[in-house]
Amino acid sequence: VQLVESGGGLVRPGGSLRLSCAASGFTFSSYAMSWYRQAPGSERELVATISSAGGSTNYANSVKGRFTISRDNTKNAVYLQMNSLKPEDTAVYCCYTWMGRMNYWGKGALVTVSS
């Protein structure tokens, strides 16, 4: 299983950014996917989850209405569209999935929101 994030970077407050996660090594369309984030000195936070077919999504209250998780099962990819970004959204964002008791993480993409 391999999860590789891309799309991180520096953005001004109020700006937008789209993260991508390319998945390989498993039957992508069979598994739910999530995005987590971890800011310096903070615990890891679940940001959003999407079901295997993409019909169901859940969001942390802190990002609801601003972030959108989506997936393309033809491309084995999951995305996180982040709008109206705030400095407190600064964190390393990681792609995640689980299969039974096995957990799989990407290495993460750094998002910095600063003026």
SSE order, one letter for each helix or strand: EEEEEEEEEEE
Tally of DSSP helical segments: 0
Strand content: over 45%
Computed CA radius of gyration, to the nearest angstrom: 13 Å
The number of distinct β-strands equals 11
* Sheet/helix structural class: mainly beta
Which blocks of ≥5 consecutive residues have pLDDT under 50?
A: none
Helix content, binned percent: under 10%
* Molecular shape: globular
Question: Major sheet: size, sense and barrel closure?
Answer: 7 strands, mixed
Calculate the terminal CA-CA distance, rounded to whole Å. 37 Å
Mean pLDDT: 97
How would you describe what is shown here?
The chain has strands at residues 2-6, 9-11, 17-24, 33-38, 45-50, 57-59, 67-72, 77-82, 91-99, 102-105, 109-113. The model has no long low-confidence stretch (mean pLDDT 97). The strands form two sheets. Strands 2, 4, 5, 6, 9, 10 and 11 form a seven-stranded mixed β-sheet that branches. A four-stranded antiparallel β-sheet has the order 1-3-8-7, with no helix packed on it. It has 115 residues and is mainly beta.
